[in-house]
């Protein structure tokens, strides 16, 4: 059953990525550096269910933080990250499962599993 859900979610993410022109990222293939993780502390990553992936620094010094999110059009999440980091934030699309796994792997903290009611509401 989980495999079917993963396949369905993957198709939905691909469709959303194409429709929104927001890149889809495979977090299982990335090795995220500790330096990138410092931009979003574990508590905030858990609260917003995001993970920082890449920092782009332009020649003029402007910095942009690329963050994997499940819902890239969720402006409150992106605004909160901009306010917290003080720099530009760009979303990348990833599955909720991949984000949870990455938070657990890179921050070393367990992510509470949502109850059935919470999962349905999300």
How would you characterize this protein structure?
The chain is α+β, with helices and mostly antiparallel strands and 122 residues long. It has a single domain, classed as 2-Layer Sandwich (GMP Synthetase, Chain A, domain 3). The protein contains six helices and three strands. It has helices at 2-20, 34-37, 42-48, 75-85, 96-107, 116-121, and strands at 51-57, 63-69, 88-93. Strands 1-2-3 form a three-stranded mixed β-sheet. Strand 2, helix 4 and strand 3 form a beta-alpha-beta unit. The longest helix has 19 residues, at 2-20.
In CATH, the architecture is: 2-Layer Sandwich
* Helical residue percent band: 40-55%
Straight-line distance between termini: 19 Å
Shape: globular
Any idea of the CATH topology? GMP Synthetase, Chain A, domain 3
Give me the CATH superfamily.
Answer: Type II secretion system, protein E, N-terminal domain
């Amino acid at each position: 059953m989980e495999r079917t859900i993963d396949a369905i979610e993957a198709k939905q993410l691909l469709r959303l990525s194409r429709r929104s022109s927001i890149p889809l990222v495979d977090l299982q293939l990335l090795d995220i550096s500790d330096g990138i993780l410092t931009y979003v502390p574990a508590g905030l990553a858990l609260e917003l269910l995001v993970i920082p992936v890449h920092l782009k620094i332009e020649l003029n010094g402007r910095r942009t933080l690329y963050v994997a999110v499940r819902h890239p059009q969720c402006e409150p999440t992106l605004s909160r990250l901009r306010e917290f980091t003080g720099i530009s934030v760009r979303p990348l699309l990833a599955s909720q499962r991949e984000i949870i796994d990455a938070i657990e792997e890179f921050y070393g903290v367990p992510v509470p599993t949502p109850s059935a009611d919470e999962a349905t509401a999300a």
